[in-house]
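MOLECULE: protein
FOLLOWS: sequence and fold
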Amino acid sequence: MMAAVAAAEEGNKVLLLEQNEKLGKKLFITGKGRCNVTNAGDAEDFFDHMISNGRFMYSSFYRFDNCQVMELLEKEGLRLKTERGNRVFPASDKSSDVIRTFSRMLEKLSVEVRLHNAVKRLVIADEVCKGVMLKNGKVIEADRVILATGGLSYPSTGSTGDGHRMAAESGHKLKESVPALVPLEVKEPEIGSLQGLSLKHVSVSIGAGKKPIYTDFGEMLFTHFGVSGPCILSASSKITRKLLQEELPLFIDLKPALSLEQLDERIRRDFEEAPNRQFKNSLDRLLPAKLIPLIVDRSGIDPEKQVNEVTREERRKLAELLKKLQWTLVGTRGFNEAIITQGGVSVSEINPSTMESKSVKHLYIAGELLDLDAVTGGYNLQIAWSTGYAAGKGASEDENCN
């Protein structure tokens, strides 16, 4: 939609082919249906949150950055608001309002939209893209073609991998696609007992050794298969490929605001206030109820023991457990649960200023199809807006484009 708007603004006749029954089907579910349209941080912040090929984004981001996205949407009547972490949402909290805004822009710019029109392949002759062939066999000729079909995540929204296939058939190299911003699976079966438990203000780290692969602070969620939530989703983008090769340890610091000594002292005070309580009933002021049985079991302390009989060494080990609750990560969930796709068309084969293919003239590739991704917070949609805009304008800058 952004590519079509950008091209139409230059006076081109633009046809948008959509295989679904409506526009923006995937956009509709982003941000849990609220649509985190972008992030209001500065340019440095944007590039800091990129995972893959951030440098490639310099040209397109500075050509059409987050401020310009917000300005465009507000100019078209969509009120926005900025929340924690500089996340930008429609004031209405409805992703449908974002889609409606783009639909109005497309209509105003006389972009022809054809729904239920799935493309089968690109029409390429002498290394020049001449148009597309639909799945019904009809060929549509075009001076320029922009491929912006999305990745593989949430295939029910139409992200079926057709774009990757068409890019590969036209000779482009693809980096293997893997699910990203995706929940992680845990080996230990007792994780299921914590299903539905959400933890706020915890610290997570992944990887053994002195230097973890990933660390973060914030919110996480336990599921029947493993872990999810903002901290975990962002972590997944950093570790997914490594998880394909090996299991990784996950450590959760349940009390990051306290040092080990401070936590030990806190436990000691709690024990002294009710010295005759059984250990299994003594942690309710320290931990959520759902977590207590697991901690009691892992602590190695007799559940029936009165806390005044708990030794200093046992108490110290309990504090260590709360500071470093360990799990074993064994894999990720699939594309049907992934927010984005990591991997895709190699950016070395794309002009970063225009998004034109370096090997097929008049073919432009934008958005999640490219090997570009970032953590959560509106950054991935900004990649889509910036590269889509660059493709629309890049196609228009070529001579003889209609």
Summary: The first helix runs from residue 2 to 8. The chain has twelve helices and 20 strands.
